[in-house]
Amino acid sequence: MSKFGVNVPPGIPATTLDEVKKAVDQMADEKGEVVIKSQILAGGRGLGKFTNGLQGGVHIVPKAKALELAKQMLGATLVTKQTGPAGKPVNTLLISKKMKLKREMYFAILLDRKTAGPMMIGCSEGGTSIEDLAEKFPEKIIKIPIDIRVGITDAQAMQMVEGLRVTGDKAAAAKQIKALYTLFDKSDCTMVEVNPLAEGLDGSLIAADAKLGFDDNAAYRQKPIFDMKDESQIDPREVAASKYDLNYIGLDGSIGCMVNGAGLAMATMDIIKMHGGAPANFLDVGGSANEQQVVEAFKILTGDKQVKAILVNIFGGIMKCDVIASGIVNAAKQVGVQVPLVVRLEGTNVARGKEILATSGMTIITADDLDDAAKKAVASIA
Length: 382
What we know:
Radius of gyration: 25 Å
Largest sheet: 6 strands, antiparallel
Distance between the termini: 53 Å
Structural class: alpha+beta
Number of strands: 19
């Protein structure tokens, strides 16, 4: 952020207690206090709770107590509103200098579907849950759409400054808003959320805390950013899937899904739910998956203990049904599927695909259509 001219508090990341000790010595203010922040890929850290009982993922502490607190935080699991009940492991702490702030605001830039471009969102109150604030006082939220072809204008930056009720140098504040947009644009961000965006005692704006998201499709041109990716913060199933270009999202149900195409995957999940089941995942193998990808998909599904049945739903367009049927049979034999396997094939070479399944010698439940497949998958674990 500082690379793009955004004002940020001085801070040092620490992954060991020795690093914490050195960072605390450098960051302690004149009163001997430092800020210790848990670094996880989720918001709501300040109001979060560690599974070991420690309350709060962000603390202001005297230098003498910093190491003792860090021992409770490093390696522990922090649960917040955004992590889900499983929480996230805290492998890094950010040791920051305590800032003297006059007031706190909220600022974000998100991608907005309705306007098909970036949307600046601001609120003159911040530092706490923006979701709760937006629900109680929606009139306090400022929204300014940006034309991606033009970029942020001086007028838009000043409109946001006025909406945030900045009391200091408004021209300097507008410059900070423009710097945050430049960060969003040049770093291929999907989100820049600054909470709080604070005013220092001198009236200058400071990004006191921030959360950034990046477009995976831009990884090839944002290598330094993506090299910092911490896979311990991500579902291990999603990490495994990404290595084989599979789109995977873990869910809470018991029916594992393997589908080609995101739209068909969503429809499959909906119909499973409609018939009384619950999908264990979203898994899109894409339109041109090869046998190795199918094998890896089966490994992910069968490795999930909550999966009690697997539903494969393939529409053969680019991907021919006979090729995918061979892949399913070979993958199932290689992995060793121990749960009911329901397969629905439709499209190119479907007759040959069904013949391959029927003569495989394996216990495969075939289905005529998606509705039939969902019913059979749900019934198989009833």
